[in-house]
## 1
Amino acid sequence: MAKRSEADALMNRIAEEFEALPRQLQGVARYLEEHRSSIMVQRVGEIAEGAGVHASAVVRFAQRFGYTGFSEMQAVFRDAFTAQASPSRSYKQRIRTVIENRTGVVPAVEIASRFIDASRMGLDELAAEIDETRFQKAVDALAGAENIYVIGVRRSFAIATYIAYALQHTQKRVHLVSGLGGMFREQLRSIGKGDALIAISFPPFGKETLYAMRYAQQHQAKVLAITESDLGPLARHSDVLLKVKEGSAFAFRGLTSTMCLCQALFVALAYKLELTVEETLPRGEYDD
Amino acid sequence: MAKRSEADALMNRIAEEFEALPRQLQGVARYLEEHRSSIMVQRVGEIAEGAGVHASAVVRFAQRFGYTGFSEMQAVFRDAFTAQASPSRSYKQRIRTVIENRTGVVPAVEIASRFIDASRMGLDELAAEIDETRFQKAVDALAGAENIYVIGVRRSFAIATYIAYALQHTQKRVHLVSGLGGMFREQLRSIGKGDALIAISFPPFGKETLYAMRYAQQHQAKVLAITESDLGPLARHSDVLLKVKEGSAFAFRGLTSTMCLCQALFVALAYKLELTVEETLPRGEYDD
DNA sequence: AAATAAATGGAAAATATGTTCCACGGGTGC
DNA sequence: GCACCCGTGGAACATATTTTCCATTTATTT
C-alpha cells in the first residue's frame, strides 16, 4: 500500500523537478518513466545504456533525489513491485472493487476499460479481415493521383482531418472538403480526371459525402470509400471500398479502427512513394 | 516468446525432480514455486532466508538444474518478465527487420498488418496502464465545467476535432480552438473560472497549445492535458494529465490509442452526466 | 571574451553479491 | 557400532556492480 505510493511519490517529484534537471538527467528521468515497470530488474549499466548516458549519471540522478545511490532508489521500485505482486493484493483489490460498485456509482475507469476492450476487439477484427487486394488498390489509386480530396462529415470529420494532415507530408496536393462557409460544392468543383477522392462515411450516411462521391465519379476521379459494409450507398459510387467494423460498448461506436486503417493506408502509401519515414514525419518543429 | 517458455520449462523440471531432491533443496523449490514472480528481483540471500536455508543451498539448487550458479538461473526469470513487460521492444525489432529487408516490393498489406499490430499493442498498454484516479478526476473536471475549450494542433488536431464533435452531444458549451483565421488567442479569450480546457499535445509540443494552457490556467480554468509523459512542459500547466503511449511502426507514430482514450473519456463523461446513450449519439439523421 | 560554474565520462575504489571450498554433523548401510 | 557418504553452513574467495573521484568539456555569467 504505502510501498506503491512511495514509488508514485518519487515519480511525481521527478516530474516536478524535471525541467530544472540537466540534459542527461532528463534523459534518465524519461527512461525511468518509460520503463517504470522494469527498472527493478535492471542494472545501473543497463539503464544508463538505455537512457544513453554514463552509469555515473544514473547514480547522480538518484542522489539528486535524496538517495545515497542508485541501489537505494531501485529498492523503492522493487518494494512497490513486491507489494503489488504479493497474492494479497489482487484479492484485496477485487474486494474493494466490489464494495465500490455497491454504492451504485460505477467508476469512470470501469467504463473506460470496457470501452478500450471493445476497441481492441475492433482492431483484432480489422487485422483479421483486411482485404489485401482492395488495400493494395487503394494505395495504388492514391499513389497515382495528382490531387487528393478528402471528405467526411460529423463523426467522420475528425478522420478526414487526419488524413488530410498526413497527406500533406507527401508531394500530392491535398484538399480537405470541410464545408467551411457552406462551400462543400465549391471546394469540390475542380476535382477531375487523375484526381482521387477519399470519402469516409458510416450510416446514416451524410448527404454531403454521398454528393461528393457522385460528383467525383461524374468527373472521372477515382473514389476511395471507407465505410462499414459493401452494401449501402457508398458501394455504388466508389472504385475501391475499404471495410472497417468498429467495436462498440455502451451502444457507443468506436472510431479507433477507422483511425488505424487510415494511418495504415498512409504509411503504406508513404512507403510506396518511397518517402523515408523521416521525410514523412519530420521529428522536428512541424510535428506535434 | 521463447523466453517465457524457458522459465516454464524450468519450473516443470523442478516439479518432476522434486521428490528426488534433498530436504533443503525441496524447500528452495517450494519457495521458488510460491514466489515465482518475485524471484527476479530477489538476492540469493533473500531467497535463502525465505526458504529457510543457507545461501549456498540456493546456489547448489541452481547448479543441480544445469546452471553455473544462481545468477544464471535468475536470468531466466528476469528475461521471462522483461519479455512480457515490454512486448513492444521485440516488436520494434521485428519491424526494423522488415524495413531493412526492403529487397524489393513489400506488399502494402504487409505494412498495414504491422501497423495494426503496433496499434493493438498500444491499446493493450493503454488498458493496462490507465491511471484510475486521474481518469476519474478528468471526468469530474469536465462534468463540472460550464464551457469546454479544446485545443490540439497539427497531428493532434484531428483528435481535438473529434472531442469537440463528441462533446456537442452534451449540454456543455464547446469551443474548438482551431486557429482558423489565425485567431488562436481570440478564440480563447473568454475562457475563465468554471471552464475547462482540453489540450492534446505530443513532442515536440506545439507552441499554440502551450500558450493556450498557460492562458487558461492564468484565468482559473481547469486544464486537462492529454500527452505521452508526466515530464515535459504540459505537466506544469495542467490540473489533470492523462498519459497515452502510442505504439509505433516504421517509426511512424500511431494515434489510435489517443483516439480511444478520448472516446473513453467521452463515454465516461456521458455516463456521469446521465445522458442515455441514445440521447448522446442519436442514430438518427445527425449521425454520420 | 574571460572567468566561473556546471555537467560529463573515464577509471579507480568501495561495496555488495554470488560462488566455492572445506570442516562438521547426522544419517544410512554394512 | 563403525565407517562412509551426503547434506549443511560458515567463511574465504571471486566477481559483478555500484559509487566516488577527478580531469575534461560544455554552458553560463559578467
## 2
Amino acid sequence: MVQKKNGPPQGDPPPDKAVEPKRRGRPRAYEPEVALGKALDLFRSTGFAATSLDDLSAATGMNRPSLYGAFGDKRELYIKSYQRYRDNARAVMGDVFSNDWPVRRQLEQIFATALDIYLSGEEGPRGCFTVMTAGSEAVADPDIRAMVQNALAELDKAFAHCFRRAKEKGELPADADPAVLARLASATIHSIAVRARARVPRQELEAIVAGAIDMMVGKR
Amino acid sequence: MVQKKNGPPQGDPPPDKAVEPKRRGRPRAYEPEVALGKALDLFRSTGFAATSLDDLSAATGMNRPSLYGAFGDKRELYIKSYQRYRDNARAVMGDVFSNDWPVRRQLEQIFATALDIYLSGEEGPRGCFTVMTAGSEAVADPDIRAMVQNALAELDKAFAHCFRRAKEKGELPADADPAVLARLASATIHSIAVRARARVPRQELEAIVAGAIDMMVGKR
DNA sequence: TGATTTTTATACTGTCCCGCATAATATAAG
DNA sequence: CTTATATTATGCGGGACAGTATAAAAATCA
C-alpha cells in the first residue's frame, strides 16, 4: 500500500500527454523535446568531451542553469541525448525491420536508412552515436557502457530475426546461419558508420553495402 | 651545389642509426621513442579531447616544455602518436599479411593479432586508434582525416591482396570477389574494434571472427 | 493588488587548460 | 676555467570550463 492511498477505486484521471496542466510559475521559454534534440545534434557532431556547456547552451537556446534544471549535469544530458537517439533510431529502423518484404529488399532499405542517419549533419557526417560512444565514454563509464552493449545487442537481434524469417520463407539456403549473418550485417553497419565519419563519399559506402548484401543473401 | 661543399669525395660517414653523435648541451632525461609510446598509450585509452597535457606530462615523465620541444603542441603529438601506432600496426600485421599460409589460417592469424591489439591495455581495452579517431577528430581535421582514410584504405588493400592471392591459388571459388571479401573483412575488424571498446568479452569477439571467416572462405 | 511559485538571466568561483617565458642545470667546445 | 649549447624545471597568464549562487522576470493564486 505504498503507491495508492485508500482513495476511491474509480480510474485515475488519464495522464493526457500534451495537455498542459496550467503550470504555476513563469512559463519556460523552451520546449524540452526540441532542446534535447539540439543537444543530441551537437553531441553527435563533436562528441562528449569536446562539447562544452556553453556550446550546448547556445545550441539549445537555454542558459546553463536552465540546462541543469531540465536535464541535470553534462553527463546526464549526454545520456538523455543518447536515449533520445536510440528511441528515434528504433522508431525509424523498426519500421523497416518489421516490414514483410523479401530479405534483399529489406536489407537494402535498412542500410539506406542507416546511411541517411550517418551522413546527415550540417557540419559534416555525424556517424553513429553508439559507435562514437563506444570509442569514447563506454570503457570508463559503466552506465553508458551498458547502453552501448544494449544497442549493439539489439541491432544483432534485429538482424538475426530478419534472417531467421527469411530462412523460414525459403529465401536463404538451409545451411545459412542467421546469427552469423546478423553479426556480419551489424559489422557492415559499424564499418559504414566509421567510414562515414571519415567523410568517405556515400557512393563508396553504398558499394560496400551492395557487396555485403550479395555476400549475405547471394548475388541477385 | 647546395648540399655538398667542395669537400673531399670520399664516402660520407655512414649515418649510423643508434650512434649518438656527441650532442652538445645537457643530455635529455627521456628517450623520445618510449615517451611517444607512453603518449600513444594514453591517447588510446582516453582519446584526444579528454587527455590533458598534464596527463601526458605525467605519463611520459617529460614536463610540458620538453613535450613541446620534442613533439610540438597537443595536436602534433596526437598525430605523431597516431603515426607511431600505424607504423607499429603495419609492422605487426604486415608479417601476418605477407606470409604464405592458407587463407583460412592467415585470416585466423590476422584477426587474432587485431584482437590482441584492441584488447590490450591496463585501464581497459583500447580498441583501434583509427576507429576512435574517425569518431572524434577525423570529421573536423583534414590532416587527421587523411590519415584515417589512408589507414582504412590500406587495410582494405591488404585484405584484397590476401583474397586475390588465395583465389589464384584456388582456395576460393572462381566467382569470389576479392574486393568485396576484403571490405567484409575490414568491416569485421571495425566491428570487433567497436565491441572491444564496449568491453564485450574476447570469447564473443572470437565467435564473431569465426563466423565471419566461415562466410568469407567457406565453412571448414 | 500583493504573495507565491517557477523559470530566466547574470555573474561568480575554483579548477583545469594550453602554450610560453624565464631561470636553472648539465654537457661539450675553446 | 670560461663560453656556448641544449635541455630541464618552475611557474605564469589568459582563457575556457563545469557547476552554482543570486537576482530579476513572468506567470498563477488569494
